[in-house]
Amino acid sequence: MTHQEAPWHLSTMASILRGTDSGAVYTFGKTRFADNKPSQFFIKNDPIIDIACGDEFTIVLCQNGRLFSFGSNEYGQLGLGHKKTVNRPSCIKTLKPFKVKLIACGRSHSIAVNEYNHIYTFGNNSDGQLGQSNTIDKDIPTKIEDSPTKSNGKIIQVSAGSNHSAVLTEKGRLYIWGSNTEGQLGLSIDTKVEKITAPTMVAVPEKIIHISCGYYHSGFVTENGNAYTFGENENGKLACGLNENGQLGIGDENIKVVSEPVIINKNIFENSDIMNVSCGERHTAFVTKTGKLFTCGDSKYGKLCNLSETNDSEFSPKLVSQFENVKVCGVSCGGCHTIVSIQKNNFQLKLDNIPSKLPALPPMSKKIEIPNIEDNFTNGGEEWFIER
């Protein structure tokens, strides 16, 4: 999952939305602390500014640089020093001395970058996705020593796939590591090399400005507005990587795996520059600088946003006509769904049987204080509130 600064934040793996003023987090779907009902919470005196969701776990970043985590924890992906499931947000104490700036969660591993540009990883490391030059799981945040990213400036973005990880530096260099079984690392190496356990730079002739890791594929955008993909292409999701469903967007359903970055022809995007790419499990979405949304890959459950009644895969990015009359600002792809953000006060969408104006989020009317309990399995004395 990949994150950028925004006045509000969306995350698809657990359908979590962050509000603006209070830093409240709204949760939807399967949740242990709210009995699977829509809910919300906030950290007292420290607004939440970013959210990362993995497979049944969540990490939130507060304004003061603290991290709180909760959910499944069988690999130590919560970074709390144990592997027990945690039902309420708990502070990751080992990172409290440092102000964390960036976070990302994969299927069962996590990444954090602090104010000193140090990369910390924790959780499942079976494919080297922690970048520690080994395959040993970590249940506390562990610094990647002697990271080669240091020579290319500040880290400005992090992303995590199922079992691979990536960071982008301000000089436009992409470093990637972890599982390579489907060519999702884009390192032009044989997929028989199943894992890379340390950050390795992807050779690209252009400066990269945006990255995204999907389940088994990856993508990035360059300053020239070009989009590249690699990895598994099942269902055509690539436009790079495994291409079984066309998730790579390269237009050829016979190409199943792409092990090096492939540029997508701009003609597909009506000759517009790309500013954002998001890679899901088996689909991919692109946003142009003109505010148009294109999607490709597996179309099941309507996640390509085209409201098609068929489940046919799209092997080339296709314009989402329902958003033609609005300006799309961002997109985030999950496993089987997609969230799209559009320009404020512009909700006139061509969506059949769907209200043209989105309903407001529920007010923060009821506050329940969680008692301060000092132990490793709770919130460690921090005050936070939840509405049920």
Average predicted local confidence, pLDDT = 82
Strand order of the largest sheet: 1-2-3-4-30-29
> How far is the first residue's CA from the last residue's CA?
27 Å
Overall geometry: globular
What is the CATH-assigned architecture of the largest domain?
7 Propeller
Unreliable stretches covering 5 or more consecutive residues? 3-14, 353-358, 364-381
Oligomer state equals: single chain
Largest sheet: 6 strands, antiparallel
CATH topology-level name of the largest domain: Methylamine Dehydrogenase, Chain H
Our count of domains comes out at 2
CATH superfamily of the largest domain: Regulator of chromosome condensation 1/beta-lactamase-inhibitor protein II
- H/E element sequence: EEEEEEEEEEEEEEEEEEEEEEEEEEEEEE
Layout of SSEs?
Layout: E1 9-11, E2 16-18, E3 25-27, E4 39-43, E5 48-53, E6 57-62, E7 67-71, E8 86-91, E9 100-105, E10 109-114, E11 119-123, E12 138-143, E13 155-160, E14 164-169, E15 174-179, E16 195-201, E17 208-213, E18 217-222, E19 227-232, E20 234-238, E21 244-248, E22 257-263, E23 274-279, E24 283-288, E25 293-297, E26 314-319, E27 328-333, E28 338-342, E29 368-369, E30 384-387
Parallel strand pairs: 20-21
Antiparallel strand pairs: 1-2, 2-3, 3-4, 4-30, 5-6, 6-7, 7-8, 9-10, 10-11, 11-12, 13-14, 14-15, 15-16, 17-18, 18-19, 19-22, 23-24, 24-25, 25-26, 27-28, 29-30
